[in-house]
Structures
1.
Amino acid sequence: MADRSRSRILPLALAGLTLAVGHLAGAHSGVHPLFVADSGTDEGDCQDARTPCRTIGYALSKAGKAAEIRLAAGSYAVDSPEILFHLVSNSVNVSGGYARRDGFERSGFGTTTLTGVPHEYRALLEARGFNVIADSKGLGAEEAAEAGELLGVYDRLKKGAAPAECVDGVAGDLACESVDVLSHVPFGDLRAAPAAGNDVWGFVDLNTGREYTLAGFDTGTAVIDVTDPANPVEVAFVQGQRTTWRDVKVYQLFDSAGDRWRAYAYVTADGASDGLIVIDMSGLPHTIEKVAYQSDFLSAHNAYLAGADYSTGIALAEATPVLIIAGSDLGSGQYRSYSLSDPAAPAFIGGATAPDYMHDASSVRITDARKDTCANGGDYCEVLLDFNENTIDLWDITDPEHPERLHQAVYSNSAYTHSGWWSEDRQFMFVHDELDEQRLGLTTTVRVFSLADLRAPVQIGEWTGPTNAIDHNGFVRGNRYYMSNYSRGLTVLDISDPAVPKTVGSLDTYPFSDNTGFQGAWGAYPFFFSGAIAIQDIDSGLFLARDRSRDTEQGRFAFAAESVFAEEGQAAQLTVRRTGGLTGSVSVGFEFLGATAGATDFQGAAGRLDWADGDTSERTVSIPLANDDAAEGLERLFVRLVDPQGGATLGDINVASVYVGEPAAPSTVGFFEEAIEVAESGFGKAVLVLRRGGSARHPASVDYALAGGSAESGSDFDGSMSGTLTWDAGDGMPKNLVLDIADDGNSEGNETFEVRLSNPAGATIAGSAAAQVTIAEPVTIAPPPPAPPTEGGGGSGSFGWLILTALALAAGLPRPASRFSRTGGATRWSARDPGRWR
């Protein structure tokens, strides 16, 4: 049983670091040093010191994440703007003075000369230990100017890109196609000041309606409020060990006793020994808590939540989602399943019956006739897509404790089977290979498989891009595929014909090259209700973007309202509109997702709505609601538009809430929480949430006003101190009253102010009419200890301890003392079971 005690994380609080165990990464990760000598040959991957490459440019094309390039003593031409950019920006660690004869083990054994460097960069590179010759054999004036322009862009991105529409192929400094920049959060804007980004996820908090990005960085995970995507605000940063790889997923469930939703984030780190970090986010919008959970593994490459909705993290079909851990340091890194019956303490329940290392995962719920081909399927079959370096394994995990492998799929020109996702009609799978561009010289290639037969998927098409940039991760929203494309940034594909995807949008978050290196966009998250897209760039941080490729002549589908209301025993009516275009015959599907309303509360099944060519009239989704004679309060059901056909796309409001009330129940409005605390120098905002109860049939309103306290308006906080909040008929959504908190720099102790409700119309006030806000003095927290030294530019940790352990085991001696302990399935150290260490 996990220790359920928690250490509270105020917005400035950082979890302490622990000493890391050394980490050996696989070939795809690129953490091995790359070796270059002027007597070498530009062949292979540059990772064998006995056969080094010859040029810096070739080595850059083979560099992986957290790359390090070691140059032997000799002379090297700086003959492209890209090489100069990487040298000057230090975005890839390039160092010189190594001796080829001793295997590039130590530097300082000779002079490494760079030729053709423009004179203005000479002093900078000489300060890094290079001998610099500015001559005509390198960059010409035009190329030097291009390099200077790139460095100017690099400097501006470090400070943050301004919001910009994509006009004539450019959004500010970034090349684009139909994708606008809404905002940018560079590393320097985060209080932890990380140096590199990695993966990204998000969710919609159902208590407040606010949207959050969970962005991974080399030193931890940031929780960022992106409710206003043009003005993102950091809420908290959970520190972890320094590593290149970090992944996060979110589970949200309703606590009926507390009458609120509770959300948990699950964070894994590869190349570290953080284990599984569990973050309780139920205190949002102001605080989060790191759960004192004891993980049974130390390192893992990825986390995935099977059986969950990707916008909210809530369960599908009233089942409890299963946490899938990929590429852990246990066994051979095959997938491991964890029950979330206690979401603060994931419990191991089983995993793969084959020893293949899982790198990434997705899952798709099958409800049509194909479910009968599964071994464990009943009303549905939960199929796990296991991307395990060499094959794509399909598993039936309907019973996660007894998985069955349905098939192993392969494809030609395979180099490293990395990740993938599925189409919203659940008939196709899009697959990414992370190394085929770098190793085989392919242009960007995304493969498309038919899932018509779950026991025999076949490749039926592919998309090839215009450059050699590596495709990394992709996700489907409607008929758009949002793909992080490393050095090419975000790529948006139209998958209306899944077998023949077409490029319709892009945003180049890494404008310095389109090469086969591991720079640029790591991940993209397109599932926010608002329609915003989060893009995490390794080198410059988090972007929020808008996709305008959805503006088509066939039109967009969206609900007329975000919320409707109906009483039990009636039918809820949702209006769907086709706007912006009317060419062609089109259709869109709809499906249900229970929130607090379950399958017994409504009738009906997924269906489709059709429009003829030229038709823009409205369509209605009618949902009969059951009257169960139980007093349940105001319940909520989601209806989602999916799988548009005929070339039309999904609009922003493709999810609507149906609020279900008891017959003739009175309507109320009131504070979600009647007392909140916010740090003076933390999130910077006090968010008072008001919600409806009982009924949302009629319009309602309530006045609010400042009611005094020790805190002073204008100096301690600012915002609208009086006004009226209104709800339209059918609107059951929570409303947020947001006040800016000022850090006046004075030590005054905690201060308070009160906001009071009055003059309700169309409803009565539930609970207290007043809410108290406490502004807490900042807590001074010692910074975490520095990260331990890395081995070969890769994961953090005490590599020496691992070596000592291996030597002790080989000699039959007791292993050296370790600061780590385990519980559950792994109760002792065993040289970390043979197999892949990633």
2.
Amino acid sequence: MATPSSVRELTRIRPVRARRMTAHNLRLPPTPLLGRDHDVAFASQLLERDEVRLLTLLGPAGVGKTRLALAVADRLRDDYPHGVWFVDLAPLDTPQSVVQAIARELGIRETRGRSLLQRLVRVLADQVVLLVLDNYERVRDAASLVADILAACPAVKILATSRAPLSLRWEHRYAVAPLDLPIPQRFRDPRRLDRPLPAAMDFFVARARAVQPDFALTAANAAAIAELCVRLDGLPLALELAAARSHVLAPQALLTSCAWLPTLSWPAADLPARQQSLRAAIDWSYALLDDAERALFRHLGVFVGGCTPEAAAAVAGDGGAAGVLDSLQGLVEQSLVEAPGAGDKIPRFRLLGVMREFALAQLAASGELAPAQERHAAYYLDLVERAAAALLGPERGDWVRRLDQEHDNLRAALDWAIAHEAPEVELRLVAALGHFWWTRGLLREGRRRLEGALARDGGGPSRPRAKALIEYTIPLMWQGDYDRARQAAEEALAIGRALGDGRASAESLVYLAWLADAEGDDDRASRLYAAALTESRLAHDAWSGALARMNLGGLRLHQKAIDEAESLLTEGLRLGREAGDIRLSAILLTALSRVACERGDFDAAVPALTEALVLCRRACDLRATYLAAVAAARLAVSRGGADRAAALLAALGLQHEIDRPTPSRAAVPLPPWPRAAVREVLAASPFAATWAQGESSALHQLVEEALAALTEVRADPDPAAGDLSERERDVLRLVAAGLPNKQIAQMLSLSERTVKAYLTSAMNKLGADNRAQAAVVAVQQQLL
């Protein structure tokens, strides 16, 4: 199917020429078609191709398919000497009535001895004609008639508009997308008003001027208009109906009202009834669905920002996974649901905002809203509790991205739990989400959500409460609220010990030690870290053991006890890898690179920092990436790579997204802010421009820039690969020989878990995605 993304590559300017008096019945609208120049050009070019006999413009209600078809037909009129004929199929409901409608527009009458279809085909058999068949979704059963006409009339072409494909072998499809949307935040800057506007804003402003001639885009209303366009998904019909009210309501007032979305109307006498009301336009599509599709469409209204088929099946109820997929496909074909992107690992379906409002209204009217919302909350509770464990493992990056996609649904589940006084559900949700919030730098949202859930929790000591208290401690520490952080950590420690939860006890002790360290009490911090180590050993918990060693190692590094720091951090890295936590491993590797720098061994720092950055790329964590990128910038400066370091200062730009952590000697010691030092080094270069460029860089760009900076200070062209330990080499030799982990463990007298840890470490150093690839790379680089 052709899409607007390919339009710019294929569009070309048609030469201006005098128009012939071609026969046609096109009734062109009195207002210009805005924001569709590329669509018109591309669809026209498709129809000009010899092999394209049938082109279907597909899209949801209100997207402007009819207007686009009329514009294309008008553009191509001179190519069809026998006429361009527009046929409105909206009032029809039988195949026979379609033949009658086409014949009526062409002035063809039935004759004795021949059916009307036979007469129509006979007249068109030697004519060059373009038929525009509008609203074909109403009569999809008549698609065979289109095939008959095309087969018998070689010079006839058909341009159809429909919310669902005709599914003929002749058919070429073009998806009509909503108008380009603005980014509302950008229009808070008055300078944006002088630039070309996104098509949706341009459309709204033009239509508003039609009812209020002095309407103008200003610094005062631009952001509201941009937000309005986003809320209406760039649908031309929705924008037109909203603009029609601009003479009585300012954009800000339109935006603050929610109830008007499905009931927008405009009593224009020259428009069909279905186009005078947004609700009528959507009702039109809804009426075409079968019962299963209607039920699923209603239930999709509870999702915010889309959903996976798994989620849809969990909430929609009885249809089962296979039935839900079938109905989803039907809704996509009817242009009511947006299909997943081609690159989506997990398919995701989304309703446009105005469709969602309609679906929710239908769900409420059917009495299904309350149970659907409850199933929605239950599904997302299960999802985040699965995610909470996975975020501490090697699949962390995939789960972070998945929670990113589902964040609006997670907020909706939390809001449901609060509104329906379900404190246990709320507490479990926030306890599982805490780590995700900190990963994405959402300190304020996380703190607010956790405070509310803990206050509303009326139950006794429980694992969810202990976990929520631990997660609550983190933003309090980072934001300098030490007294409340200590209270939360002490309560979590008491619950952990009462329940025999070694991990909760150890983690609480780590944060209590962090607080003592931040206040300069080295002795108390050391005692608490030692207690955390004891708790983790008793619980046989590698993860909390790695966390405690990472923080204690940071303290010893600050105290210049370099050997002890290295020992603690090295053992912490081993345990972190055993636990499979790539984020923790990345931070420990960054700390070990700091140890090497303290010794002046910059060449040894590079492989550790390189591996840390590779892990950061997989971990999708702001703070881990920030620490590693700053360390890389400092290393680049110290080794003469100042130009690279300047670009790498994008790491500091992350402070616009996350609260600046309170300086502490615990965890990984933050190096002094490098901005002033690098400014001095780059006194003769355009530092300000580099800095601005760096602040706009995305997370993955930071990692790539940091890795590039490290290549300039390496002594070994691939030190990370060359830094394989002897045991890692032993394991890879056996992997290369085709042995499974269990047999490797037996041959080397190791546990399977340890073999897996060695493999994970080797894969990280070699930049490999799996064990087989790691072995191949090691063989190719002659490391075995």
